Amino acid sequence: MTSTAATRARGDAAIKTAHSYPFSTRLSLSKAAAEKSFDANGNRVNYTIDIFVGKNQYLSTSKLGVFTQNIDHWEKKERSTWMNRGSRLYMKPYRMAEATHIHILSIEEPPFLMHRDYELTRTPNRRRFRRQEVNPDLDLYIGYVPSLLKELKKVFEEDMGLDFTYRLELLGEGNYGKYDKSTLEWDGMMRDLYDGDADVIAAALTKTKIREDYVDFTSTWYTGDVKLLIKHPSFVWEYPFVPVFPFNIYAWLTNFLAFFVATILMWLISRLNQNEWRAMSIRGEATEDEGQTFTLYNTTYYMLSIWAFQGLKKSPHSYSGKVFTAFWFAYTLIMVWLYVSNLTPFLMASKVGFKVRSLHDLNKQEQFGYGVVRNSPTFDLFHESTTGDKRITWDDIQTGDEDKIVQDSIEGVRKVRRDNGRYALLSEKKMLEYEAYRWPCDLFVSGGYVTKIKFPWPFSRDHHFGISSLTPSRNSRVMASWPTSPALVFSNRIAPKHPFGKRKRRNPSQELIWRVSIT
């Protein structure tokens, strides 16, 4: 028997002895593989549990925390002061991406988060002074997210005594994150969060079912209204060529081409058909004035008069001319009907947008089209819907014009102004108000809300208390200074990064593997 086996045998014998003789007050084996101490009742004492965290086959090599049964014994053994007075459990600040700080991702989404010179870069022609150098004492970003993180830092460091060092980074492509079912991978911020390159997403991120399978959310803390951004009726009819708006340029070109071709064909019929006035005048069956009825000039006037529901004194004499006139009259009747039916919204300031109070009202109206910003919180809300009015709304957005879904909020605002009351942008109330209150102040946010959109708080073991402490008191001050609030999303993906860049982790389970080491 080796020395190690003999030591273990002596330890097991000692444990049996401790249980066999209750008068033994204490037994401590320090020469064994690990220190083992028992009290008078034979219970294990003076032990320490190191806690590690990991996922599936991955396991972190650094300790997440430590639990000691006897703080005084631990301090004597380790010759240091216990880190968490008042509790036998000490958990290190959980940081997945970086060891020295919390890595937070966000997107430039006014008014949630903006660069300090956002307005200057957006409308450079309105401010002609020379741009000053960046003051290092001022924050690079402004908005609700930076203000909220400052208040959260105070809660952690002043109220909880925990370090809250973070680094805020903006994602370049401006994508919240979408799951590709073909590749089973995320993109945007969700990919960085899932892969372990970030700890937190601080943005107006909508909680969807697929995202809940990969990251953790708290219950809903902020509920916003999804409203319509429309052009104010007082600014709708300011263009001098409003009567041409019912048809686009292609429709007008088609009508002019049809008029030109129909005029030429009618003129040829009047010249070549032997039963027309010109041939009859040559044969002496009609007067010379009747023979000049369908010259090129008179034919043009005749075709135009049919379009205006008028007519000349003489109509075509041949059957071919009469049939062609009937077809042209039917074409002009259809075109005039389409023009008049589309002209009404352009001649009257429609107030349908003011009357929309629900998705049902929005879906049944036909006065204007509506769309969303691609990959925005509102886009995710309707895109993930499968039933009810939300699905009807999404089908109408998706099956309508290709430009109903705009690439960003700036393009959406331009489309609302350009379409002159025929397009409305669906988005969260505070985002729309930020755009509506900008110069030239010709936009309006509808009074009634279409639906609700919910932003949840994120949570982690050490962060949940800080967020709960912030919400009732300091959060109100931040809400007063900035129009809206973001959602934070903490990743529960605690596995290390993929070796050699190979993406092996595709299992959506959230199992935490805890390795317990008794020392």
Q: What does it look like?
A:
It is a single chain. The protein is an alpha+beta fold and 519 residues long. The protein contains 19 helices and 22 strands. Strand 4 and strand 5 form a beta hairpin. The radius of gyration is 38 Å and the shape is rod-shaped. One of its GO terms (molecular function) is transmitter-gated monoatomic ion channel activity involved in regulation of postsynaptic membrane potential. It holds the Pfam family Lig_chan. This is Ionotropic glutamate receptor C-terminal domain-containing protein. Its main location: membrane.
Share of residues in strands: 15-25%
Distance between the termini: 25 Å
In CATH, the topology of the largest domain is named: D-Maltodextrin-Binding Protein, domain 2
- By CATH, the superfamily of the largest domain comes out as Periplasmic binding protein-like II
Radius of gyration using CA atoms only: 38 Å
Overall helicity: 25-40%
Tally of individual helices: 19
User: Stretches where pLDDT falls below 50 for ≥5 residues?
Assistant: 1-33, 55-60, 126-134, 457-466, 483-519
In the CATH scheme, the class of the largest domain would be: Alpha Beta
SS content category: alpha+beta
Number of domains: 4
Overall geometry: rod-shaped
Described by strand count, sense and barrel closure, the largest sheet is:
5 strands, antiparallel
DSSP strand count: 22
**What is the typical, i.e. mean, pLDDT?**
73
Can you name the CATH architecture of the largest domain? 3-Layer(aba) Sandwich
